[in-house]
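Quick note —
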Amino acid sequence: MKRKAEIRFSAAGIAHLREQTHTTRNAARWSLAQRAKSGEFVQLFPGTYIKSENWPSASDYPSGVLAIRASFARARLECIAMAQAHPDRVLTGHAAALVHGLPLLDIPDRFCLSSPTKRGKCTRKTTSGLQFCLNYAVLSHTAPNYTHPAEGHGTQDVTVIDGARVTTLARTVVDVAASQPRPTEESRRQLEVFRRFAEAIALADAALRGNLGTLGSEGITPAEQPMWPDAPARFQPPDWSLAGSYPVLAPTRHSSISSAAFLPYLRNGKGALPAGRAAEILLAASPLSDSVFESAAKALLIELKLDFFQQPRIVDEAGRMVARVDFLLPQYGIVIECDGRMKYELGPAFEDPALDTAPDARTMPRTSDPWSDRRRDFRLTNLGYRVIHLTWDGLFDGSAAAAIRKAIHAAQTQLAPTTQPRGRWFDAATALPPASYQHFRDAA
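Predicted structure written out below.
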């Protein structure tokens, strides 16, 4: 019986034919092909394979939110494999964002694998059909090892994650922001233009927010200061439910960066600002967004050219805490809330009944319940605020913008100076700790 040749793996459980130098090329090729045929390996592209246990196949996650997560996880692994196959090149733009674990709204049709020396262009494809454009890009010196806290220091552009060379977190965000063209009044209304703008803001917000040891689900590390005294824990929608039950789908963890980390990349060698909407996007970026949903809602408010405050606290005349809301338009007395289904459902099972058997499905707490939110709406309405609840689909089908415009029109025509909302509100920077406010005592 012929013995299988021992396979050598790089990071992320990926095996490249060219790295099997311990045996003959034919023996390594035969061994890889046989293991792929038996289902032990999955071929990503010619000469490159991955262990099946590390590959979230479509058959394992056929539907629901996990199917979407699996598609992004597969694209990330293919980006890493392609970068490992071309060690002289660097993943940039959306490909780098995927590897860093930043949230994308869609998987792009084409990724960029850039070289600071080779000016020729060519295209490589994976077995699943992802295209990689091998192009030229100006990059500064490379970091020998990847360490999260080193982001943004000096002019370092390149780092290493899972054996793949990628642009740093700050450089990646700036690259994606700079790729957004400045829209005209006509193109601004196009869905795809707004979707890419919302995605760029979501990437910038996620980089500033981080999901490891910042204001995320794992708490605040002693070395970092909260955004205001006794800042509340942040809510990260689907990530908390994936790390335990579905580690293959769990997003990559990264530390937060400061907005100052963007500054070295804002101007080119001639001192000019990048074209497009880069400056506008980076100025709008904030760690206050709890999720991609809130980042997209903020993008909508920016497109509507409205003045708003994010995460303010509202108290009544007696000084009792009423709510910490997602957005406030103080000029019109309008409160905007982003209500995703994950906020009320138990874990990821809401998308697929078959997932009710998840090991920790019964231990995953809801972040809110409809009745408590209903009571909060009553209190805000009684103070004189108009409360608008947005849905994810509404951001992109025009209904959210229509609801906001209708509420503003009603406020402009009906709101008299004597009917301004009662009580007070504090923005995120000046709000006091929760213990400083009186709270409503609701019966269970």
